[in-house]
Amino acid sequence: AIGIEVNRVHMLSAVLEKHTSVSLANKDIYANVVGGLRLSEPASDLALVAALISSEGQTALPAQSCFFGEVGLTGEVRGANLAIERVKEAVKLGFKKIYLPASNQKYLNAKDFKGAEFHWIREVGELEKMFGGPVRKRAPKENDRRFAARDLGFE
C-alpha cells in the first residue's frame, strides 16, 4: 500500500471477508494513492472498499463517481465530517454519481446539487450488490453466531 496505511487496508479487507461474500484472503492487494499523497482520512474507506469489491467482482466502477465515508468493523458506513463541502467540491470537479453515508443525508439537500446523483450507503453489502458482479452467499463459519442460531431454529 502506497499512500495509505497498510493496517487500514488489512482491516477493510477483513471487514469485507466478514460481512460480504468477497473473498480476499488468498489474494494480493495493491493500493496506491496518486500524486504522492498520504491518506490518513477515514472517509477514504468507502472508496477503497468500492475498489476492492469491484476488483474482486471484475466490474468497473462507474465513471465520474465519488465515494466517501468511514467503514466500521461491523460493515456499517459512518458519516463523514464536512459532507456538504466534500459534495460541493466533487460536483465542481465534475463527479456525477456520489456514494456517501446514509447518515449524512440529513445534512444534504440533493436538490441543491444539479446534475448529481446521490447513493446513500448504510453498509458495505450494499456496495457489493451494486459493483460486486454476481452476489455469492457467504458460507457460514462454525463460530458464526448467526449460523449457530439458525441451526438451533431461532432464525
Compose a concise summary of this entry.
This protein has 155 residues and is an alpha/beta fold. It has helices spanning 6-19, 45-57, 83-92, 124-131, 145-151, and strands at 65-67, 70-71, 77-78, 97-101, 117-121. It has five helices and five strands, in the order H-H-E-E-E-H-E-E-H-H.
What is the element layout, followed by pairings?
Layout: H1 6-19, H2 45-57, E1 65-67, E2 70-71, E3 77-78, H3 83-92, E4 97-101, E5 117-121, H4 124-131, H5 145-151
Parallel strand pairs: 1-4, 4-5
Antiparallel strand pairs: 2-3
Written account of the structure:
It contains five helices and five strands. The longest helix has 14 residues, at 6-19. The strands form two sheets. The chain has a three-stranded parallel β-sheet with strand order 1-4-5. Strands 2-3 form a two-stranded antiparallel ribbon. The relative contact order is 0.16. 34% of the residues lie in helices and 11% in strands. The chain has helices at residues 6-19, 45-57, 83-92, 124-131, 145-151, and strands at 65-67, 70-71, 77-78, 97-101, 117-121. Helix 1 (6-19) crosses helix 2 and helix 2 (45-57) runs parallel beside helix 4. The chain is an alpha/beta fold and 155 residues long. The model is unreliable at 146-155 (pLDDT under 50).
